[in-house]
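It would be a great kindness if you could assist me with a short task in structural biology. Thank you for your consideration; the sequence and its tokens are set out here.
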Amino acid sequence: AIDFTWKDLLDAFACVECGRCQDACPAYATEKALSPKMIIYNLRRHLLRNKKEIIQHSREALPSLMTECFTADEIWSCTTCGACLHVCPVEIEHIPKLVGLRQGEVLMEGRFPAELNSFFRNVETNSNPWGIGFADRANWTEGLGVKTLAEHPEAEYLFWVGCAFSFDEAGQKIARSLVKLFQAAGVYFAILGQEEKCCGDSVKRLGNEYLYQLLAQENLTNLARYKVKKIIVGCPHGYNTLKNEYPQLLPLLPDLNEEDKKLLQSIEVIHHSQFLEYLITTGRLKLKKPFSGRVIIHDSCYLSRHNQIIASPRQILKWAGQNQVTWLEAENSREHTFCCGAGGGLMWTEETQGTRINRQRTRELLSHQPEIIISACPFCQTMLSDGLKDENREDVRVLDLAQLLTEVVAI
């Protein structure tokens, strides 16, 4: 408790116990151990019970939070989707506390779910969760004529590919679709190729702050060396990390001079949904054949709730479908979206308690009888595709915005 910030301590006593966070939590809704409400309530009890030791900074006399307040099942069930904060009337921040508890378990105690051993090892040795070597990072570009920044340092945009687009088969299809759209629109872009490393989103949220900062420092050094000004990111998790979290590390990087830090602070980070909307509104992509059918959007938590990117995917689909589409909207959509279950690094863990979160979300979307589910996140696409298999509904397609556009744009 001594290590909590003043905001953490204030949150513990600001809670009005309305239970809205609990009602919105996908982990709680699917019978997991986690209740955001009880996290705050138990923290307050701990602070009151041990107030004397806390005031005296008597660390040795304090009982462990993981002994007195919380369980491993609780802290490892959070997807960091942000639904709790979004509905909280007094803006209590649950996620930093849970991630902080994970940091203590990972970095100080060496305790974490067994399946994360291979995850951390893969990222440490090959800078990606799949553990595939650096030399294969750009294999997905075969036949596309994509250049690296080393070959074309004057490129206007850096396409930050990310690990899922680089190594996952489904993600590679999205990446190839994006490249074809960029080329059709005459976008002058390049990739980092072998020089790109995992952005560290999952690593950070799984509590390995040390490894996250190592990855971030290497990536920021490369961005500064190439004097990158604009970055297009395909993954909402990578987008959030590069746009909102990397700038916070700049004061901690002594190897970068002030000019480099100023340049890095000014980089424009763009999610691919925003960029595709820009290409459409500027007339650089031409509609060939509108698509039709019953279409529903699954909003990514890190796109809609964490970064308020809601309109761009809908504008793209409105343009691509013209008047031939039946638009469907889930009960939990836009900033109220329901998590797919992959956030918070849980993409890399096993979900053993209750109903799988991706299956619950898939059932909600299927209740509207869609023919196509649209996503703008590779993690969401994987989780929803798995959910459709579990429900024996592989007749329903899950497509990224980029994949849909390649079907309707004249390329």
Observations:
- The mean pLDDT is 96.
- Strands lie at 157-160, 189-190, 230-233, 268-271, 293-297, 325-328, 372-375, 397-400.
- Residues 270 and 312 are 12 Å apart (CA to CA).
- Residues 209-225 form the longest helix (17 residues).
